[in-house]
Amino acid sequence: MRTAAVAGMVTAGAAVVSLVHTPGAAADPHASAVAPTAMSTSAPAAFSPDSASSVIVKSPVTGSDAADDSATDSAAEATDDTAAHDDATATDDGAAADTATQAAQDDAAAQEESAPADKGRGAEYNADGTIVVIDKAEQPKPQPASDEQIDQWINEALDVMKENGIPGSYEGIKSNLLRESSGDPHTINMWDSNAVKNIPSKGLLQVIDPTFEQYHVEGTSTDIYDPVANIAAACNYAADRYGSMDNVNSAY
């Protein structure tokens, strides 16, 4: 009896072992279908595709990676800002240089316009602005105005002189005018002592620039070659120096 029982147990055990290890054996409906699997602790691979969904899964960013990215972005922004600032500075400098150049050109043009060429007949000037002095024999011959023009200029000058209390007569003015310039309003003396001093006598009554500026009569032209302005200034000077142009009978 005991021997048969042991044999039966051995046989049963063999059968159990056989069922457990035989591939393809039918599963016991009361037994667990799948044995529990241990949880994996390995870190996920960066940017590894999920075979089931074909979706790219990005691995999580660590704190040090984020700091590095932030520092890189900040450096890039700083570089861009520096480049932009340099470009803006270069543009401003170029614009300032252009403005300064244009201003210098405008000033030069304005000076040229404010200083018209001397109207003296035959006058020539050196590079430094001084008049070219010549011999008396080389002095250009005067080109007298008509008697009608001379009469008109003297009468206009007398009106201005009367308004400003400057003495003088038609006869006194005309006699001096004909002696000094022969009636040529553009005569300029390029040979006497005044020419040597670079203050040549100019116009109908041969007035030098300093005298014209000092005795210029308000309301007349500031051009020394203007006939009326020249006569009025010369008579104003003669009145101050000699009492009247009528008292002048020679170079004055």
Number of helices: 7
Low-confidence residue ranges: 1-59
Instruction: State the end-to-end CA separation.
Output: 178 Å
Principal-axes geometry comes out as elongated
Which strand order spans the largest sheet, edge to edge or round the barrel? 1-2
Give, in order, the helices and strands. Answer: HEEHHHHHH
Strand share of the residues? under 5%
Strand count, sense and barrel status of the largest sheet are: 2 strands, antiparallel
Helix percent band:
40-55%
Which class best fits the helix and strand makeup? Answer: mainly alpha
The whole-number mean of residue pLDDT values reads 76
Radius of gyration, CA atoms, in whole angstroms:
58 Å
The number of distinct β-strands equals: 2
Fold blueprint:
Blueprint: H1 2-21, E1 48-49, E2 56-57, H2 63-114, H3 147-163, H4 170-181, H5 193-196, H6 209-215, H7 227-242
Helix pairs in contact: 3-7, 6-7
Keywords:
single chain; 252 residues; mainly alpha; two-stranded antiparallel ribbon; 7 helices; 51% helix; disordered N terminus
Please provide a written account of the structure:
This protein has seven helices and two strands; from the N terminus they run αββαααααα. With 252 residues, the protein is an all-alpha fold. A two-stranded antiparallel sheet has the order 1-2. α3 packs across α7 and α6 packs across α7. The chain is elongated, with a radius of gyration of 58 Å. It starts with a helix and ends in a 10-residue tail after the last helix.
